[in-house]
Amino acid sequence: MGGGAKFRKVVLRGASVAGAVRMWGSTFGGELSAANLHVGANLSMGHGAKFNNVILDGANVTDSINMDGSIFGGELLASSLHVGDGLFMRDGAKFRRVFLRNASVASNVEMDGSTFDGELNADAMHVGGSLFMRDGANFADKVFLMFATIGQILDLHGATLASLDLSGATIAGEVRLGAWGIGGRVTGWRTAQGEPGDLILRNAKTGSLGDDKDAWPERGHLSLEGFSFAHLGGFVERQGSVVARERGAEWWDEWARRDTHYSPHPYQQLAAAFTLAGDKDLADDIRYSGRVREHETQSGLNWLWSGFLRWIAGFGVGTYPFRVLHWVGAISLAGALYLWKYAKGVRDKGHGFVWCWGAGLTRLLPVIEMNKEFSDFFNDPERERLTARENAAFSIMGVFGWFLAAILIAAVSGITGKS
Fold first, then answer.
1. Per DSSP, which regions of 204-347 are E strands?
2. What percent of the chain has pLDDT above 70?
3. I need a surface site. Which of 103, 151, 201, 411 has the fewest CB within 10 A?
4. Going along 177-289, which residue ranges are E strands?
């Protein structure tokens, strides 16, 4: 049926062809109805063929389907399509609405360089190989790949998308939004009207994430709840994971915040990936950033308690608890200055500032007795060395020391529920 032939309405419902079906370069002015068609070899619909509405629901093609360079002016309905090899929709092909729900393609699905003016619905599609939607492909309407399974790579680099929903999808290999070492542009997220595009990764799973820092949607247009990945940097070269680490915790925190609905899951995934890559310090920074964002979502007593944990003990994450030493140093120095300047007992005995600092540190850390002389100095029931006001001030200082210790213990022991 190829070679530039012209047809109006063609009905092949339930037909069975032992060999190939060829429609290349031809024009189908009406509907091509081929639901449940069985083709024993290739189905060729490429080379600039022109179609209106095409129905391939339930069709079974033993080999590949080629639609390269063709124009589909109406709907392409191919739900539950079965393809024994590859599905090719490349090289400037133009589509309106396309339905590939529950379709099964044994090898690759390739859409490089094509235009989809309407919705592309491929929910629950199974691709045994890779799904290529790259190199100038333009998806002006919503793309649905909910609960799709892809055996190798989902490659989007160099494509422009208005909206992509990967909720519940599983990509065994890599999601590629612009990978190092292979050239090409990064993924763009824009609607036909120039508005920011959306990427929904809710509960999606992939083995690796090969991205570029400029390949992500804007803040408020990214959904990351439940998104799982094992590695960062993709499979191109090891350089990828190095570049991902070089962005630092601040950049990855901003990435997670592009999803305006807080969830600890993206931070947990990032921390696990960086730990696996051997960068534990960066993983700790990511965990800390996640706890900071959690604190920002809290209110009331939870916000107050979390604030103490944050500023005093760094939520108990990594080396952040050492910030309690800053508090110890600042408070003990303030106490030393107070003693040195105002305490009569200090001036009478000629003690210097260093001695005052040791005394103040002992008072702040009541569990640790650095020098018995310091302890005896504060044991002054007759008020010979300290006035009532000075005694009260250093009693409060001792209470604050117990408070610092309690916060530190709570943070590092896991009582705070650190992630």
1. 205-210, 222-223, 228-232
2. 88
3. 151
4. 188-189, 198-200, 205-210, 222-223, 228-232
Give, in order, the Cα–Cα distances in Å from 79 to each of 17, 45, 60: 20, 17, 11
d(CA 416, CA 317): 11
CA distances from 272 to 231, 265, 285, 295, 360 (A): 9, 11, 12, 21, 42
Phi/psi at 174 (nearest 5 deg)?
-145, 140
Q: Which pLDDT value is given to residue 241?
A: 64
Residues 6+ positions from 261 with CB-CB distance below 8 Å: 223, 225
Q: How many CB atoms lie within 10 A of CB 10?
A: 17
Angstrom distance (rounded) from CA 42 to CA 66: 8
Write the pLDDT tens digit of every residue in 203-243.
Answer: 999 999 988 888 999 999 999 999 999 888 766 554 456 77
Give me 362's structure tokens. 């002992």
d(CA 204, CA 90): 26
Place of tokens 């055996």: 151
Question: What pLDDT, on a 0 to 100 scale, did the predictor assign at position 345?
Answer: 63
What is the enclosing helix (H) or strand (E) of 16? strand 16-17
- CA 306 to chain CA centroid, nearest Å: 25
Q: Is 223 helix (H, G, I), strand (E, B) or coil?
A: strand
Q: Among 239, 255, 248, which Cα is nearest to 199's? A: 255
CA-wise closest residue to 192 among 90, 131, 116: 116
Alpha carbon distance 205, 227 (integer Å): 6
**Contact call for residues 163 and 197 (beta carbons, < 8 A):** yes
Cα–Cα separations (whole angstroms), residue 295 to 92, 327, 363: 49, 21, 31
The radius of gyration of the chain from alpha carbons, rounded to an integer in Å, stands at 33
User: Do residues 141 and 118 make contact, with C-beta atoms less than 8 angstroms apart?
Assistant: yes
Confidence of residue 411 (pLDDT cuts 50, 70, 90): confident
